[in-house]
Amino acid sequence: MGWIAIRMLTGDRVKFIGLIFGVAFSTLLITQQLSIFVNLLLRGAAAVHEVPTADIWVMDRSGRTPDVTLPMPATALDRVRGVSGVGWAVPMIRSGATVRTPEGDLEPVSVIGVDDATLTGLPRTMVAGDRERLSDPDAVFIDDVGARKLFPAGGAVGTRLELNDQRAVVRGIVDANPTFTSTVILYTRYSNALEFVPGTRNRLSFILARAAPGSDPAAVAKAIEAATGLRARTRDQFARDGVDYIIENTGIPINFGITVALGFVVGVAIVGLTFSLFIRDNIKQFGALKAIGVTNMKIRGMVATQAAMVGLIGYGLGILLAVLFVWTGAQNSDAFKGFYTPWQIPLITAAVVMVMILLTGLLALRVVLRTEPAEVFR
Amino acid sequence: MTPAIEVAGVTKAFPVGDSQVQVLHGINVAIRSGELTYLVGESGSGKTTLISIIAGILFPTQGRVEVFGTDLYALSDTRLVQFRLATIGFIFQQYNLLPTLTAAENAAVPLIAAGMSRREATDRARELLDRLNIADQADKLPRQLSGGQQQRVAIGRALVHAPRLVVCDEPTAALDARSGRRVMDLLRAVALAEDRAVIIVTHDNRVFDLADRILAMEDGRITHDGTTMPQGH
């Protein structure tokens, strides 16, 4: 009876397309919004993911995220290096500054000072220039999104900037993960950063460390906390802290949650109404089938086949559109740079669509099962 | 002849608001095999209710219905559905063909519901449509067929699984006199045999002369049982 159910469904093209559209629209909305939400949250951990070699981040005991920095005394670096189990430790500055562009505009930027010797903390991929040029006097590297923002006409490399009223020269462009704050990022050596960032007694933002071979990073982080009184987090913990900070301190989860819920409600409304109309239009036919001797079990199978077909096609189409949207956005817009659709999101959407189809299918089925076969004679 | 259907003491009441409306009042009738039986009467006389009960699609309030020796309402729901599928063929006034299936596929539905493969069922349906003289319309959708052709497809669907009882609701209501008589002739030719029966609910006095037996109903009772129409109808 399955093929009869499918022919009944596809025979009414307008309602069939309406049903597919309802599921596809819901799937698109939910998947797209969840993808943007997750990618925005992951930006809270972008700075951590940028330094894969460091498995421990050390900060002031009140520090919480890579974007909220509280300076420590320079001596903290040596204290961390002295803790048993620490393989190596390097300093990092993350600080706000202002840059004056060649056009005379003022632009807030983030200055990141990385270890002079190892350049730990510098993104691995260069878009333009050579990593060694960061050793040049007053050299800074700019992130690729920032370069397009500050120098839309190109020609960033070699340009002289006023960074906090001091001379800085762009020597390269790096492919950096955009952070949640989306400011222009200028990378420089730690020693240079000390010159660029306004002078206070303490300017060390983070200490990036790696556990010695054979040591557990979590255990070493605890040892650092015990020995120094500073806060030490493993890489995964600190990435999670960045995400949690956004969840707890912004309205993003509520806003996206509302949109996702609306996607579900709109989907249920469109699919429910159209499916209900479809069933009502075919109620005489279902009644005739029941009278002829088609069992309720087979009728259930027919409605389930119709619901499954609508769900599968609508879901597939919606996922395809959502992935295409996110991919196109990531390729063509700096605002979406690095965005992708995590594999878990289509699974979550599949579960939501399944609930939607079950709800609407059961409602429609109720009408069919309630239909008395004798009604076909009336 | 052996009785094909025995209806004994059947009553039916429908709830209307807080009260019950009695539609059938203790119907007793036996319908013999090999007969084309008409059930006639004014609207609201109870003939559709009676035919629904005889066809096993509406439970009586009281009474017993035996179809070819099987007490219908002593069967479980599942067995009753299986019995209908195997034993009864239905022809509805509005045909109730599935609009997205071809004529052959529509006629094959009872066989498919019984578990036969689509191809085999459709081939069998085509053979029957050939006997009904609409083989050339087998691949058309119902909307591409005339009323008479649709009715033939509905007859094909009712007969494709060789049921022993065929119940028809106003099969000629939407047809002109000539087509109506042809449909009745077809039913007689295809459905009637020694071990079979056909019951037809009709208002159509143009075909009354084709009946073997006419049962007239009035206010939920059988008021006439004969081979011709009673006076006044």
Quick tags:
heterodimer; A: 378 residues; alpha+beta; 12 helices; elongated; B: 233 residues; alpha/beta; Rossmann fold; four-stranded antiparallel β-sheet; 6 helices
Describe the structure.
The complex is a heterodimer of chains A (378) and B (233). Chain A is built from twelve helices and ten strands. With 378 residues, chain A is α+β, with helices and mostly antiparallel strands. Chain A folds into two domains: 2-44 and 251-377, no CATH class; 73-229, no CATH class. In chain A, strands 2-3-8-5-7-6 form a six-stranded mixed barrel. In chain A, a hairpin with a 2-residue loop joins strand 6 and strand 7 (166-174). The radius of gyration of chain A is 29 Å and the shape is elongated. The model of chain A has no long low-confidence stretch (mean pLDDT 88). By secondary structure, chain B is α/β, with parallel strands linked by helices. Chain B has a single domain (3-226), classed as 3-Layer(aba) Sandwich (Rossmann fold). Helices cover 31% and strands 29% of the residues of chain B. Chain B has helices at residues 47-54, 77-87, 103-113, 118-131, 147-159, 177-191; strands at 3-16, 19-32, 36-41, 62-67, 70-71, 88-91, 165-169, 197-201, 213-218, 221-226. In chain B, strands 6-7-8-3-9-10 form a six-stranded mixed sheet, sandwiched between helices. A four-stranded antiparallel sheet of chain B has the order 2-1-4-5, with helices on one face. In chain B, helix 5 packs parallel to helix 6. The radius of gyration of chain B is 18 Å and the shape is globular. The mean pLDDT of chain B is 87. At the A-B interface, helix 1 and helix 10 of A face helix 1, helix 2 and helix 3 of B.
